Amino acid sequence: MDLHIRDVLKKYIKQDKRVGDAYYTQKINSFWKMELGDSINSRTSELRYKNGKLSISVTSAPLRHELFNNREKLIIRINAFLKEDIVHVIDLS
Q1: Helices 61-69, 71-82: crossing angle, 10 deg rounding
Q2: Alpha-carbon span 49 to 87, nearest angstrom
Q3: What is residue 84's three-state secondary structure?
Q4: Residue 71: burial class (beta carbons within 10 Å; 0-12, 13-18, 19+)
Q5: Domain total of the chain
Q6: How buried is residue 61: exposed, middle or buried, by Cβ count under 10 Å (0-12/13-18/19+)?
Q7: What local confidence, expressed as pLDDT, does residue 1 receive?
């Protein structure tokens, strides 16, 4: 049986939730910085992914409101970036 390292890592990430959550949190952080830019990133104090839920802490009430109104679009963009359907809920604080 010939397995690529990529396949082994994907299997490991899916099996170990703690590792998977940390991996996806890091990937989402990369998306946040690249796709949403410095303005939004500088007003975001924390991004954390766990079990299909993305928790976002922001320091700006207007930004929180804007993200809340666009959370469905944001979920679609994040999942497209990750090429996986893993984010199902966004929690803003």
Answers
A1: 70
A2: 8
A3: coil
A4: middle
A5: 1
A6: exposed
A7: 58
